[in-house]
Each structure stands twice: as C-alpha cells, then as structure tokens.
Amino acid sequence: MRLWLRDEIDTLRSYVRQLIDVAVERAAVEIDLILPGYTHMQPAQPIRWSHWLLSHATAWARDAERLEQLAQRVNIMPLGSGALAGNPFAIDRDALAQELGFAAASANSLDAVADRDFIAEFLFWATLTMLHLSRWAEDLIIYSSREFGFISLADAYSTGSSLMPQKKNPDALELLRGKAGRVLGDMAGLMTTLKGLPTSYNKDLQEDKEPLFDAVDSLGGALQIAAGVLSTLNVNPAAMRAALTTEMLATDLADYLVRKGVPFREAHHITGAAVRMAELQAIPMEMLEVDDLRTLHAAFAEDVAEVWSIEASVERRDVAGGTSRRAVEAQIAALRASAPPA
Predict the structure, then answer these.
(1) pLDDT tens for residues 269-292?
(2) Chain-centroid distance, C-alpha 308
(3) CA distances (Å), origin 308, targets 33, 36, 171, 297
C-alpha cells in the first residue's frame, strides 16, 4: 500500500502543479482585467481577475505543500514487522528500507501492522483539495451564468440540455463540485472504521483500500479536468467592466476621509450617509456635488473626484498580497518560484 501510494502521489503532485501553472500563466497574461470582488455574494470592491485566479492558486499551492509533507510519512517501511511482534531472523531492516527507496523503517512493529494514519492523512488531503476545487468550480459556475457572463466555458467542458436546446451547462464544474462530497465520504468512512479498533491488526483494516483507491482515482481525474477547464475558458472583459459600479468605491471614499485626518469609524459613518444621499437623489455616487458632500463633513474638497477611478482603487491596494499590479506580479513570481525543478 505504501509503495503504491508513493507512486500515485508522484503523479498527483504533477497534476496539482499543472493546475497551479495554468492559473499563474493566465494571471500573468490577463493581469489588466478588473471585475467585482464579492463578500456575502454581494459586490464589494474591485479586484483584478488575476487576483481572483491567484486566490485559488494559493490554496492549491498549500495543497501541494501538504502533499509533499504527507509523502514523507507515507515513505516509511513496515516490512519486517511480522504479524505484530517483529521478525525473528535478524534481518537488516535499514538495508531493506534503503533498497526499496523508503526513508526509514517503522519504529514499532505493533504500531506498524495497525497504522493507517498515512491513508487517513492522504484522504484528508484529498478531501481538502477537492473542497478547494469545489469552491473554485462554484465561482466559475456563477461567473459563467447569463446573469454574470464574466466567462464562458469551452464546449469540451460543457453540455447541452436534454430538453432545452439554448442551454450550455457547466457539467464538468458541477461534477467536480459533486466529487468533493464523494471524497469526503471516503475519508469519513475510513475514520469511522479506525476509531474503535483495539491495538494491532484487525480484519476491519481491509476496508482501507476501497476508499483510498477511489480517492486517488477521483483526484487524478478532477485535477486534470480542472486544468483543462481553466486553460480553455474564455473571459468577457466587457461584462466584467459593466458589473463595476462606483458604489464599490464607498470604502475608497471613507479612506479619502481617513487621509484627511478623519478617524475611520467616523469616516465609515459619513460614507454611509453619502451612499444614502446618492440613493435619495437617484444618481451614482460620483455625481454627488462637492457642496453636498461638505454638508456631511468639511474635509471634502475638489480632489474627491480622484476617488471615483476603478483603476486607482485597485492600485491603492498596493500591499503584499493585495490586488495592485505590483502586488499581483509579486504573487505570480512567488508561485512560479515555488515550482519544483524539472
């Protein structure tokens, strides 16, 4: 089991890296595209499309790191443990481990015959990775809907409706989302089997194989399909741009006041009043007159017009991990550098 899983991890490692690379290269090419960022599924602040791509690539990079770490714990040799008490013929277990490519021999024979931590840990890794893929898939399902229209999926990863000929369904993404539940079930099933076993080997442990094989198969397919979806989808910059409104710059208006020396708590309240003022006048916020804004606070001046630039808002988030061009380029460089040498 350890030898087999060790080889499968090598394959999965390459699939995770491929997916990260696709996201990073798209982020580099499409760095100037801006779309709404959301919290609570409500438009919040403008961000770069690349920033969204890299948010998922960053999670996948953690998945890659975890896979490397658990691979070390998989690579322990149980050979020579016997049924439970060890081998009576003075074999050199360290030499066997070296010959078979293991990092070390297991430390205790009784533990070795019962240990399925490496499978449980792999199933947790598989579950968390699938959860990351599921959330990414959900974003793209939403973005590909007619109501959003930010992206369109390639025909190879979509299907038509069996009834409605006008539809193009994101089936590949929906199946990825669905597979997350299946892999979670694999993990939960094994954990339930392990929780009440007495020390040493018990026949219940043969139930380790089916969930492991299923999870490996599911992850192998899911990661490759995800890379295919991401590498072939088309973006719609016009739809992204049309979804951007100046109301998303309300926080920038509060930040403007903060730079004028107004405490943020007060600036937040004043900005809320400005939002209500624009709503009552049925105009976008940038159409508010400076004189109207001055009725809310004397700090407002003619330079408030500089707040109403989407591009400037994005560039103001110029901190490590932010959505400015420089910050996104730094994230791209870091993810590229994290790739293992070929």
Answers:
(1) 999 999 999 999 999 999 999 999
(2) 31
(3) 18, 15, 39, 18
CATH match for 246-308 among 3.90.1150.10, 1.10.275.10, 1.10.40.30, 3.40.50.300? 1.10.40.30
What per-residue confidence (pLDDT) applies to 182? 97
Selected catalytic residue, list 40, 106, 132, 144: 40
Asked if the model's pLDDT at residue 211 lies above 90, the reply is yes
- Spell out the domain ranges in the chain: 74-78+115-242, 246-308
Active-site residue identified among 55, 161, 200, 309: 161
Query: Of how many residues is the chain composed?
Result: 342
Burial of residue 243, with CB atoms counted within 10 A of its CB: 0-12 exposed, 13-18 middle, 19 or more buried: middle
Q: What DSSP assignment string belongs to 272-339?
A: HHHHHHHHHHTS-GGGS-HHHHHTT-TT--GGGGGGG-HHHHHHH--STTSSSHHHHHHHHHHHHHTS
Span 139-189, pLDDT tens digits: 999 999 999 999 999 999 988 767 776 678 999 999 999 999 999 999 999
CATH number of 74-78+115-242: 1.20.200.10
Which range among 82-91, 164-173, 217-226 shows the weakest confidence by mean pLDDT? 164-173
One-letter amino acid at 14 equals: S
Query: Is 40 a residue of the active site?
Result: yes
